[in-house]
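Reagents: none. Just compute today. Lipopolysaccharide export system permease protein LptF.
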Amino acid sequence: MFAEALRTWLVVTGVLLFLTLGLGLSRFIGDAAAGELPVDTVLSLAAFSTVENLEIVLPVSVLLGVLLTLGRLCRDNEMSALFAGGAGLGTVYRPFMTLALIVALIAGALSLFAAPRAERAMETLGAATATSAIESLSPGRFRTFLDGDAAFYAERRDDEGNLRNVFIRVERDGEDGEPTETVITADRARQQRDEDTRRVTLVLDDGWRYEGRPGRADYRAVQFAEHGVEVAPPAPEVSGDVETMSVPVLLARDGPEAAAEWQTRVSVPISIVILALLALPIGRVPPRAGRYARVIAGILFYVIYVNAVHLVAVSVGEGRLPALLGVWWVHAAVFAVAVGLVMREQGVFARRHRRARA
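Predicted 3D structure written out:
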């Protein structure tokens, strides 16, 4: 049974990872096509996003793996044959719980160590690409900057990576509150970054600058050999949010946000074990019920469980719930439900009811 459960879990995990990777790629490719990201960062961002998504994929994949395997065993009457041969629930449950514990260890390592590093890497990459103005500009199409106040267009890119035949239009409010318009044309544009202020500037060579107010004829025309135009705000620094912090830093830090974050990370492996235990009684179905009869019920339990953990963690992070109580009571409640279903399957409640009637 362990081998079959492992195969089913691997298939489910592969399908879910393929879907999440596809969604991430489509989003990042769309951003790259719009010129918001350099093309060479798409695969890296998608890979880091997949590592973060494993925290969601692994719990639901274990749940579905157990449900589908038990459904197949019940449909083919193999479960009935096991019990007829003298196998107890412990024998039947052991392979599934072993798989759940192995996956929980993997998920714990990802949630506690790999996911924060992936989050830090994504922020660092985002901070670096935010300053790559030249690389992210696509020749032959207009781009806007400065919250829509600046428009940029370049005809082509030369062999050195510089943009050629550049057009820039910038609209700003003057000192008297009236808008002023600046139009710049240049033969070439190249990027320059100020390491102190982290501001990105396009250095324009061999061009003209026209400045004035719309509707008036007093425009000024200036020819230049070199001119700089700011096209991007200062690059964002890595935020330092609790999502990017390592576990030792979180444990050493006071405050409800740090407590909520590390409790959320620890909840991933805990939820895997509890969901596997919950799936065992749910997954046992009559032979004619079909393999997928209880999958919807299992997914419903998963959605309620995961959302409850998330909502409680948010409450802890905002200080509305004490960190000592935290998300632990949610895990305890779901674990009690799982144990109750297992006891019901073993007939504990029925025997107690018969003794009470006697």
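The chain is about 55% helix and 20% strand.
Action item: order primers for follow-up constructs.
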